[in-house]
Design brief:
Elements: H1 5-47, H2 53-74
């Protein structure tokens, strides 16, 4: 039983339409992923700014406290 050329044309058109919809969805997802990565990189760049002097002093104080606590835990007299 031979197939009708119109049926083949409709099937090819539907397949092409489906492919176009899938490609559009993938492109939209790709653009969203790129926007997310761009946002993450901007956040990382903003957080990579040098700390303020007050933050450095606080960090040094915490490191000193940690060193003293480790010495106490090890039984070393300061």
């Amino acid at each position: 039983m031979p197939t009708d050329p119109l049926d083949t044309l409709i099937l090819a058109g539907a397949a092409l339409l489906g492919l176009a919809i899938a490609a559009a969805a993938l492109l939209s997802g790709w653009r969203g992923w790129l926007a997310l990565r761009r946002f993450e990189l901007e956040q990382r760049r903003d957080s990579a700014a040098p700390p303020s002097p007050a933050a450095r002093i606080e960090l040094a104080d915490l490191k000193e406290r940690l060193r003293k606590l480790e010495a106490i835990a090890a039984g070393v007299d300061l």
